[in-house]
Amino acid sequence: MDRVAKTPTATGSGLDSHRESKLNRNLIALFLLGAVTACAHADWKLVATGGPDVRYESGICYDSSRGVTVMFGGSNFGGLLNDTWEWNGTQWTQTATTGPVPGPRSMAYFAYDSDRKVTLMYGGYGSGINGAMNAETWEYIGTKWTQMNVQGPSGRQGGGMAYDPIHHVMVLFGGSVARDGSGIVNQTWTWNGTQWTLASTTGPSARYNFSMAYDSMRQRVVLFGGSDANQNELGDTWEWNGAQWIQTSDQDILPRAEFGIVYDSSMNRTVMFGGLIGSESGPTLAGMETWDGNTWRSVQTQQSGVPAMRNPGLSYDSKRDRIVMFGGEKSNGNYDFVNTTWEWVPEPVPLTLHLPSLVGGKQGVGTVVLTGPAGADGTVVNFSCTKGSVTVTSFIRIPAGQSQGTFTYQAPKSLSAVSTVQVTATVNNASAVGILRIIG
Questions:
Q1: Domains detected in the chain
Q2: pTM of the full predicted structure?
Q3: 3-state DSSP helix/strand/coil percent for the chain, to nearest 5?
Q4: E-strand stretches of 123-201
Q5: pLDDT, tens digit, for every residue of 235-293?
Q6: Are the C-beta atoms of residues 156 and 122 closer than 8 Å to each other?
Q7: CA dihedral (410, 411, 413, 416) positive or negative
Q8: Less CB within 10 Å around the terminal CB: N or C of the chain?
């Protein structure tokens, strides 16, 4: 296994006292922030446990023209990988098994070009604890890989790359020209489909082990955190506007590296999950934060059981409105790589209630309509009403993929006069109200 040696720990006990104190302050701040912010109508769902081998440090992105998440390579306890897989929301399928295929590599730059409809991969590291920094540029179109015969950045790994559709270029920043992180850089390069151009050598400090995402609403490439030359984690936020980097936040968000990051166009937020904190020997996170251009906010998930993870593969499936996460290492240094597929599934909430009038002593059937299809585990809708003598189904589970369900209600014959009852349908903390008319 080609990997930098480190001391496994889940407590960060290898930190010096100053850094440990800073880490503890940030953990407290993260806890307090998470206590007052929440995403009540979404959660992580475990959707698959098979397909590709266990791994972390893979390249992953969403191909919006074909509606699939594309993944390549990565590493595990067996070494480096060079297989290509696609996730269609139901299953993983291995592709590009013949013809030219990039060599085994990990921590490559990986993003989707929505104008040219190709997945672009640059660099990554190959075999050897410190060696084989790739300087290759490859394009993938769904059936095959094609190596581009171009010169550009020197070989490097562990930086960030995102596609800017306004300026029609791929933006690449940072990384390390050595496997051990000793040769980190702060160069910004752009790729226009035919050539690489050095766009800037100013902005964020040199770093690696970070990720970037493109905010389509604000038309900015967002960069957060990473590791410096001493493998200390960073906590600054920067944005590339097409011409220069601008630092946008220095607030007390927990510094980290080796996380996943995507832009969720449904939430209009950049979303970050997992990562490593407190230096190379520190613990991993299961935390999730969102960035709206001004503030990072912690997201309090439901009881999903999603594990802490470093170097997971993260993509945003815009067609199905799902954040897809594959693989990663659960606890730093223990080599417990996984091949689980999780999805961040928005929970649809009640939109309308249809309540046909009811004659006392009879049973009626109502319909609840959600704002969207139920997630993988279905959506539970609870019901209540304002009159105790009227009985309503306590709850129903709307099956996955469906957006409406039926429930029953009944009024006693004693309700002789015309009256109305308020019926409420609730999913988590969101509700819709309907008025039931009872005829005596």
A1: 17-346 (2.120.10.80), 350-439 (2.60.40.10)
A2: 0.77
A3: 5, 45, 50
A4: 137-140, 145-148, 160-164, 169-173, 188-191, 196-200
A5: 999 999 999 999 997 666 889 999 999 999 888 899 999 999 876 667 888 889 999 99
A6: no
A7: negative
A8: N
